[in-house]
Write a structure and sequence with these properties.
two-stranded antiparallel ribbon; 15 helices; 339 residues; alpha/beta; 9 strands; Rossmann fold; five-stranded parallel beta sheet; disordered N terminus
Length: 339
């Protein structure tokens, strides 16, 4: 069983001290994962931002574009453990959480943890699993714990779910994610096919599974826990916060989703924007950071309005965000104003 971390008492650190160079350890994590995935680096940056923000990532993609390799690379680069679950219609909740069995030799019940008890967990083809099994992830993703036979078990810290799903329109035998499950994902992204030049590099032997052995840890798990706690030190100016809420409001009004965007969606969008600012080496969030994460953090939450068509939902959010007036980027932070 994965060893559970003890309580942490030090105060949240400044993200500026998380490592050398702009973006610190987070930027180094993006670089380390990029050595394995050849092609568009934007999805990697967003995935790392979600990890720093304490969220989880949903990939909707065709098979064979590097999602599993990326999850393995992230696990190695954070110095953590890796678990994998294959979604199938007969997958049971206990196949994820673990089971309690009776030990005849010791004459007692013993808990055998499932693959969720890892730092990075890949749930491949999540939408092939039934809604009942999908829902078994809710407690784990939201509360970093699972309850089995009335006993609560803490999950490792950090805990990061990377789930994949097949495009709804192109594959049979899939179950659309329930709304509560979609809302647990900080963002949704697609890897997409690499460009010709990148694919030539892959064919020549760069990246992929062969490059995984060279991936080493950027920092230890304690560093990532501290960095996550310290992310709130990235300053959010009231003007930028108001702009973020304007974006949320326009999507709520115009999307026509059965369930409007939750406050959790707004909080996660801002937190991922903070992570993006940190990765860029800044100590404050700009409107550009909000724009950079809006589609990825909001589109999967309104797909009930597009008949589970995620690309269409992304197009809608992109257009909605473009209609919101962008305020000038505030220059002053609390520290600068006091000087």
């Amino acid at each position: 069983m994965t060893t559970q971390p003890g309580p942490s008492t030090p105060p949240p650190p400044s993200v500026a001290d998380s490592g050398p160079g702009p973006g610190g350890a987070g930027a180094a994590l993006v670089d380390r994962a990029s050595s394995v995935i050849i092609g568009d680096q934007a999805p990697i940056g967003l995935a790392v931002a979600a990890f720093l923000a304490g969220g989880h990532v949903l990939f909707e993609d065709i098979p064979g574009v590097g999602k599993t390799v990326l999850a393995k690379a992230l696990a190695r680069a954070i110095g953590g453990s890796f678990g994998r679950v294959q979604g199938t219609p007969d997958l049971l909740p206990s196949d994820l959480t673990g089971v309690t069995v009776f030990d005849d030799d010791r004459r007692e019940w013993t808990f055998h943890p499932g693959p969720l008890f890892n730092n990075v967990v890949l749930v491949d083809e999540l939408n092939r699993a039934t809604p009942r099994t999908q829902s078994s992830l809710l407690e784990a993703m939201a509360e970093r714990q699972v309850t089995v036979d009335g006993t609560t078990h803490a999950l490792p810290d950090p805990f990061f779910v990377v789930a994949t799903q097949n495009p709804q329109g192109g594959d049979l035998g899939t179950f659309p994610l329930v709304s509560g499950q979609r809302d647990r994902f900080a963002l949704s992204v697609s890897m997409g096919l690499p460009g010709r030049a990148a694919e030539l590099r892959v064919l020549s032997g760069e990246g992929g599974e062969r490059a995984l052995d060279a991936v080493t840890a950027v920092a230890d798990l304690a560093t990532w826990r501290e960095l996550r706690r310290g992310l709130d030190a990235v300053y959010l100016h009231p003007v930028v916060a108001a702009y973020a809420l304007d974006v949320i409001d326009v999507v709520r009004r115009r999307a026509g989703a059965q369930q409007p965007l939750s406050t959790r969606a707004a909080l996660m969008m801002v937190r991922v924007a903070r992570a993006v600012a940190h990765l860029a080496g800044r100590d404050h969030v700009t409107p550009d950071d909000v724009q950079a994460v809006a589609v990825a953090t909001l589109a999967h939450r309104i797909v009930d309005a597009t008949n589970d068509d995620l690309p269409l939902a992304r197009s809608w959010v992109h257009d909605f965000v473009a209609s919101v007036p962008v305020p000038p980027t505030p220059q002053a932070t609390p520290q600068a104003s006091a000087m």
